[in-house]
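Aim 2 progress update. The chain analyzed this quarter is reproduced below.
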Amino acid sequence: MTNTNAKSWLPGFIALGITWGSSFLFIKWGLLSLTPLGVAFFRGFIGGLTLVIYCLATRTSLPKRLSAWGHLAVVALLLNFLPGYLFAVGETHVSSVMAGLLNATTPLMTVLVISFGFREQKVNGNQLLGVAVGFAGIVLVTGVFSGYQGSDWKGYVALLVATFSYGIAFPYSKRFVSKMSYSASSLAAAQVSCSALLLLPFTLLSHPLHSTWTLKSALGMLALGSVGTGFAYIWNFRNVRLAGSAIASTVTYITPVVATILGVLFLKEPFKISQILGGVLVLISAALVQQRLKLIREKEIENPEGYSI
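Predicted structure tokens:
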């Protein structure tokens, strides 16, 4: 049962929006010393370690069934490994502001996958409108018709593939993970730890450091891993439990705003008015398609001990 009293969930909701919105800044800081693969690995390693310590402190056991670990490994690949690497790749070519704006296409990608891949529901008029508005926003944000500077297009492709990976992860997790009889923190700890294990061999075979560690890059990775990837899962679960999944999902609208503010203030990143307008269209698209995701969520019994992405 949810408690819609804003005093109970609003602080955690705002904290999560700021945390996820600042992740794009922390990725930029991490890239000062690390390769994109290094950023993805240390993010998963620190995040997994944080969640495992939390589970030990709260005496929460990790999943024991091998089948559970198999599904969690798939979710880790789609939700942590690929996006963690691709967002870092993207931010080597484009600004953190652009990364934050394109991250808001996740609901759009999710509804496309649910509609045409998992076929959970038929697409209605509002969802088709949301998809059209979303693609118009992507065109404005990426500047398709105004041409690209240098390797910008590589960054945009990496970011959109990352959000598409999120879009696959959401329905897969709902189908194979959400009904598991483990706590959210247990599943999150196992999932994020799996991502670090999947990344480990690639990291060992490469050179994750391209220069010496700096204080800024170390602090960025510590914050990105422990807070942005570790505690953020716990806060998101708490928000779903207190406010319900419909309200909790609207944190999507805060993260690009935070990413834009931090990118301009701390990184002095430029942006065009057309890109901001595109970001607004992406958010409108998210609002339209999230009505569809809400309908899918309402089909399920909301379980306070369940797992939520």
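The chain has one domain: 6-298. Confidence is low (pLDDT under 50) at residues 300-309. These observations will guide the mutagenesis experiments scheduled for the next reporting period.
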